[in-house]
Design a protein that fits this description.
Blueprint (H helix, E strand, L loop, with lengths): L10 E5 L5 H12 L2 E7 L2 H11 L6 E5 L5 H15 L4 E4 L14 H29 L2 E6 L3 H4 L6 H21 L4 E8 L5 H6 L2 H10 L8 H12 L10 E4 L7
Parallel strand pairs: 1-2, 1-4, 2-3, 4-5, 5-6, 6-7
Helix pairs in contact: 1-9, 3-4, 4-6
Length: 254
């Protein structure tokens, strides 16, 4: 894993929570855009399979085991990518735990479980890579928030919504403090997306009602969210900073 690999690609990204779903879509979009991609997840077997699906040779995509709650794990992932491709240009904090449960039924330990991955994980990633990008004098961080963090959620648990609202606030803090060092930090706040995880979490009849309430009358495209992450991570995106990019079909307009 620490052996330097020759690659014709000049930029490298680390995507967390990339074994499936939106994370895998984000990793795929970066790979198509010409990045070396480090896909990371707590599910090592799953994320290595996702990496092989992008590049069976391992030249431009690798899977990494990463528990986003742990600083040392983030540092190890960073170091592995630096050793392999010479540097890292962007981080996408996407790792997430989603549990649907009424607020009065959420146990404090379950609340901590969700917040520790979603919010602590984003904080740790921003901090570890903020230090690294500061040394380099340039970097891009994209955090995956949610409409639930803006409106309290409609089909998610309070712990999920609270963690996503916290990600939005963290994005602004890191964006302000890191901007003088050539680093931008932005968030994307998707509404309901057309993902297997969404269909598994929300009963079909309830999901139909949610779709009916979306002004555009359909679920969002994970690929479009992924392409937006690529856009925000580009070298040209230096003036986009501290923003929350809404992709919600018109559910929240401001």
């Amino acid at each position: 894993m620490n052996t330097t690999v020759s690659s014709s690609r000049s930029r490298t990204v680390l995507v967390t929570g990339a074994s499936q779903g939106l994370g895998a879509a984000i990793a795929g979009a970066f790979h198509r855009a010409g990045y070396n991609v480090g896909l990371s997840d707590i599910d090592e077997e799953g994320v290595c399979a996702a990496a092989r699906a992008l590049d069976p040779t391992g030249e431009s995509a690798i899977g990494l085991a990463l528990d986003v709650r742990e600083q040392t794990a983030f540092e190890a992932a960073r170091d592995a990518l630096v050793a392999r491709w010479g540097g890292v240009d962007a981080l996408v904090n996407n790792a997430v735990v989603t549990i649907v449960r009424p607020v009065l039924e959420i146990a404090p330990d379950e609340f901590d479980q969700v917040v520790s991955v979603n919010l602590r994980g984003t904080f740790v990633g921003c901090q570890v890579f903020g230090r690294y990008f500061k040394e380099r004098g340039v970097g891009r961080i994209v955090n995956i928030a949610s409409l639930a963090g803006q409106n309290g959620g409609t089909a998610t648990g309070a712990h999920y919504a609270a963690s996503k609202g916290g990600i939005i606030t963290l994005t602004k803090v890191f964006a302000r403090d890191l901007a003088p060092f050539g680093i931008t930090v932005n968030a994307i706040a998707p509404g309901p997306l057309d993902l297997p995880s969404v269909r598994a979490l929300v009963p079909a009849d309830k999901l139909a009602g949610i779709v009916e309430g979306i002004p555009v009358r359909h679920l969002g495209s994970p690929d479009f969210v992924a392409e937006t992450a690529v856009h925000l991570a580009s070298a040209q995106a230096a003036f986009a900073n501290g923003a929350v990019w809404d992709i919600n079909g018109g559910l929240l307009m401001r």
